[in-house]
Automatic annotation (TrEMBL):
Source organism per UniProt: Sarcophilus harrisii
Domain CAAX prenyl protease 2/Lysostaphin resistance protein A-like: 164-246
Gene Ontology terms: cellular component: endoplasmic reticulum membrane
Source taxonomy: Eukaryota, Metazoa, Chordata, Craniata, Vertebrata
Record-given protein name: CAAX prenyl protease 2
Localization of this protein: Endoplasmic reticulum membrane
Alphabetized UniProt keyword annotations: Endoplasmic reticulum, Hydrolase, Membrane, Protease, Transmembrane, Transmembrane helix
Length: 308
């Protein structure tokens, strides 16, 4: 717990008469105990999510439609109940941000369009090389490709494909809800907003370790975890779905591709543009107010430049 102590615990030490209600609520349990409550709550959510995948005993592989449907049921139940864990955490710590629970979790309409488009655009820029590789290997030209992609028959097949629904809809939605929207508000008052954004993937990794048993390899995680700092859930969900569709970049295949030079240039350019555009495209002012800042204000911390 040393990583969550020190300066992180200072965020929970509120002084001054203006913050007396919050400090009184926190001093009763003690700042150390508040961090323990946050970490234990996040671990409970992670274990519940993973455990829900194994309540159904079956000898069938994980990609079998029957297994996927059963897991849909269990993870949707856990995800639906996960906001109750945040409510319980608020009661135990005494932190009340003064906004609705759904707003705190990033489920809101204010600023939704930039929150949906800009993080997805930034992620697509990072995948510039793989996107070029995909277009070069596509058997259709641009017009025919768009026609196939927008055809109602193609979407109807996708919506009846259990694996597509799992990878593109259910997994991104439930994982981002549990591991970003619910965990960030609980971790931020303890570690600070910046460290909390990078701490959530640790719990996310706990939930994905079970794939080693099933596939003997790790699947790619979402690169959209940082975008919840914009105060919206939709951005991480769309980025997670896009990353699941693209998969891990096939760098080895690019090295052996006939168009190797332009592809490698695209890979390098995508990474460079991502680094350059990361800060301006994740500027909180683009997405209106940041609900987590209200929570940190109640905890007596300004959360640094993200809330300034």
């Amino acid at each position: 717990m040393a990583a969550l102590g020190g300066d992180g615990l200072r965020l929970l030490s509120v002084s001054g008469p203006a913050s007396e209600p919050e400090s009184a609520a926190l001093s009763g349990a003690g700042p150390g105990l508040c961090c323990w409550v946050s970490v234990c709550s996040c671990l409970s959510l992670a274990c519940s999510y993973v455990g829900s995948l194994y309540v159904w005993k079956s000898e069938l592989p994980r990609d079998h439609p029957a297994v996927i449907k059963r897991r849909f049921t269990s993870v949707l139940v856990v995800s639906s109940l996960s906001p109750l864990c945040v409510l319980l955490w608020q009661e135990l710590t005494g932190l009340q941000p003064g906004i609705s629970l759904f707003t705190l979790m990033g489920v809101r309409l204010e600023g939704i369009f930039p929150a949906a488009l800009l993080p997805l655009l930034l992620t697509m820029i990072l995948f510039l090389g793989p996107l070029m590789q995909l277009s070069l290997d596509c058997p259709w030209d641009l017009a025919n490709g768009l026609k196939v992609a927008l055809a109602p028959q193609a979407w109807a097949r996708c919506l009846t494909d259990m694996r597509w629904l799992r990878n593109q809809v259910i997994a991104p939605l439930t994982e981002e809800l549990v591991f970003r929207a619910c965990m960030l508000p609980m971790l931020a008052p303890c570690t600070g907003l910046g460290p909390a954004v990078f701490t959530c993937p640790l719990f996310f990794g706990v939930a994905h370790f079970h794939h080693v048993i099933e596939q003997l390899r790790f699947r790619q995680g979402s690169v959209g975890s940082i975008f919840l700092s914009a105060g919206h859930l939709i951005g991480p969900v769309l980025c997670h779905s896009f990353c699941n569709y693209m998969g891990f970049p096939a760098v080895c295949a690019a090295l052996e591709h006939p168009q190797r030079c332009p592809l490698l240039l695209g890979y390098a350019l995508g990474v460079a543009l991502f680094v350059l555009l990361l800060q301006p495209l994740t500027e909180p002012r683009l997405y209106s107010s940041l609900p987590l800042c209200l929570l940190l204000d109640r905890a007596g911390d300004s959360a640094g430049p993200l809330c300034s």
